[in-house]
Amino acid sequence: MAGASPPNPVPIAYQATTAAVPDWLNKGDNAWQMIAATLVGMQSVPGLVILYGSIVKKKWAVNSAFMALYAFSAVVLCWVIWAYKMSFGDKLLPFWGKAGPALGQKFLLKQASLPETTQYYKNGVVETGLIAPLYPMASMVWFQGVFAAITLILLAGSVLGRMNIRAWMMFVPLWLTFSYTVGAFSLWGGGFLFHWGVMDYSGGYVIHLSSGIAGLTTAYWVGPRSTKDRERFPPNNVLLMLAGAGLLWMGWAGFNGGDPYTANIDASMAVLNTNICAATSLLVWTWLDVIFFKKPSVIGAVQGMITGLVCITPAAGLVQGWAAIVMGILSGSVPWFTMMIVHKRWTLLQKIDDTLAVFHTHAVAGYLGGILTGFFAEPELCALFLPVTNSRGAVYGGSGGIQILKQIVGGGFIIGWNVVITSIICVAIRTVIPLRMPEEQLLIGDDAVHGEEAYALWGDGEKYDATLHAVSSDDTGHGKPVYASGATQVV
């Protein structure tokens, strides 16, 4: 119509906003997935960085914290360059995906999916489909990346206080590439264990069993701490250790709550079960310490908390609340028994110096949780998690009994692969660089390894270096080294 004003143009900002919200995107799912991923990341940085830096002897505080910090950074970079697609990409072998970068815009902004991961029954025939969360691949890559990172950091707990830092820097990308990706693809990315029906809701096998077994294996090849450190290794800050443990516990809401790949009711069940099991396990471990050792150990309580969190992980969204309590009772007692009784009577475990008892808190608790999943997985909850697998635990009858066997065999594969591959990696590295620190560094600690100390304190028995520490002058003008207690060295 002549003289009519043209329609109002669409603002550029609005055009950009609508383009960033494709039809398949669910904002709630995407927001929760990114939050869950960041919670898992915070379990590592700062959670385990603080926990490791506090639970070790003072002279190893910096080194222990740095091993965790380095592993997190190295894994994130390796993950996006090649390891993500080895874990969740197209199949190369029944247990391994094809390597490739996860960096391009076209890949990261498309709808997330996991290739050929879902089995279902249609007219009596098993078919395969896709898991396609309603958010972009970028959210999936980040979420899975922090899981890979924390696995290496947990493994580090077995070798704190003596592993050559340069050897650790080589170990991280090698183990991620040849061990972690195999477990992740086999159980989560469409590999043979997934299609056989082995259930690992959030990493009881992929993360905890693998890190515990690989940690013990690495500790064997690296060798023990110095005799002095092994005899006396008190935490340098128990309260700060509890802060790190608290971050680990609260961050587990993302660890288990993010694994339905959607903000659904199963995620809520997983978070609640996680806290039920962890609390129960902590109390049981503490009661056992009081009954048998007459004192409630704070470190023991933290260990009980961790075993509860680990045990519920493969089952978090698959079991009812009563089963979470039963699992908490068992996770607070079985790893306690293996650590306090079996370890002291088994010569092989006595010879291997597992600094933070990662074998007991992660391998034993993770395998226990995986097997218990075979008992307690509830059919309706299994359907919420993967609505097409027809899985069920043994207590619910039917075909549930075979699930226990599947869980045992699946865990056995993870154990065998990690023992062999971790050994090969350690042997290969030591042909280039020693796995263990030289004796001078073992004697001094952080000062010798990093040229840094966690605290401006002195006097807990390490080698004294007058060039690195302050001196005071008495009335005669003679310098005397100052110690934390105010005492001076007799000269």
Determine the mean pLDDT: 88
Structural class: mainly alpha
Name of the CATH superfamily of the largest domain:
Ammonium transporter AmtB like domains
Largest sheet: 2 strands, antiparallel
The structural domain count equals 2
Uncertain regions spanning at least 5 consecutive residues: 471-491
> How are strands sequenced across the largest beta sheet?
1-2
Instruction: Provide the CATH topology of the largest domain.
Output: Ammonium transporter fold
> What is the beta-strand fraction?
5-15%
CATH structural class of the largest domain: Mainly Alpha
**Separation of termini?**
104 Å
The SSE order reads: HHHEEHEEHHHHHHHHHHHHHHHEE
Radius of gyration: 25 Å
Query: In the CATH classification, which architecture of the largest domain applies?
Result: Orthogonal Bundle
Helix content: 55-70%
* Shape by Cα distribution: globular
How many E-type strands?
6
The number of distinct helices, counting runs of at least 4 residues, comes to 19
Q: What keywords describe this structure?
A:
Ammonium transporter fold; two-stranded antiparallel ribbon; mainly alpha; 19 helices; 2 domains; 491 residues; globular; single chain
Give me the secondary-structure topology.
Layout: H1 12-19, H2 27-55, H3 61-88, E1 91-93, E2 96-97, H4 105-108, E3 114-122, E4 125-131, H5 137-156, H6 165-187, H7 192-196, H8 204-222, H9 227-231, H10 238-257, H11 265-293, H12 298-312, H13 321-345, H14 347-351, H15 358-376, H16 379-385, H17 401-430, H18 439-444, H19 446-450, E5 471-473, E6 479-481
Antiparallel strand pairs: 1-2, 3-4, 5-6
